[in-house]
UniProtKB/TrEMBL annotation:
Region (Disordered) location: 143-167
Extent of Low complexity compositional bias: 146-159
Protein name from the UniProt record: Uncharacterized protein
Length: 198
């Protein structure tokens, strides 16, 4: 009889102990789960801060690139109010419509379509040659070959009248045209020259 009572007491204590262990582990699991989600929220906030800082760095780099381009650019006046295009064509997006009294900086002449690549309001775009007041510096810029080492000069481009030179057409180079952000286009071009967009 005593043995039976002892056994029952032992079973009750073991059951109670096991239930306390399960309860303790469950509580720990809940605590850790809460900490995990708190850390995930914190991680997301940190990732957002990193993204924001990265974007700000890129914006600053673009501004620096544009300021550096301005040092070698030619300041010009305008004949009339004009549109500042994203690409050298009236069919592309207008970045801004600019008042005649404003001035802008010319970077280089776009040889395939009577446009100048220019800087206005920290943006890079294109303006029609007919919209600007020409002077000696601007005429010199028109004749000047591109200074970008990745951009072949007009003299090195194949003549379409005479057909491609077979060895020239097999060469793949980088477009190298100046982009809106002040960098250079990295598209690969077979046979040299600019890509379809520039």
């Amino acid at each position: 009889m005593k043995k039976t009572i002892t056994l029952i007491i032992f079973i009750l204590i073991s059951t109670l102990s096991n239930s306390q262990d399960i309860e303790g582990l469950s509580k720990k699991k809940i605590d850790l789960t809460v900490k995990k989600y708190a850390l995930l929220i914190e991680k997301k906030a940190i990732e957002n801060q990193i993204d924001s800082i990265t974007n700000n760095i890129l914006i600053i780099e673009d501004k620096i690139a544009i300021q550096e381009l301005k040092t070698n650019a030619i300041k010009t006046s305008l004949k009339r109010n004009f549109n500042f295009y994203e690409l050298p064509s009236e069919k592309t997006r207008i970045l801004e419509s600019i008042n005649q009294k404003k001035q802008l900086y010319l970077i280089e002449y776009y040889e395939y379509g009577e446009y100048y690549k220019a800087i206005y309001n920290n943006k890079i775009g294109y303006i029609k040659e007919s919209d600007i007041i020409n002077n000696k510096a601007i005429k010199a810029l028109k004749k000047k070959p591109s200074t970008n080492p990745n951009t072949p000069s007009s003299q090195s481009k194949p003549s379409y009248n005479k057909g491609f030179n077979s060895s020239r057409s097999s060469v793949i180079s980088t477009c190298g045209a100046l982009t809106k952000s002040g960098g250079y286009c990295k598209r690969k071009v077979k046979g040299g020259g600019h890509c379809y967009q520039h």
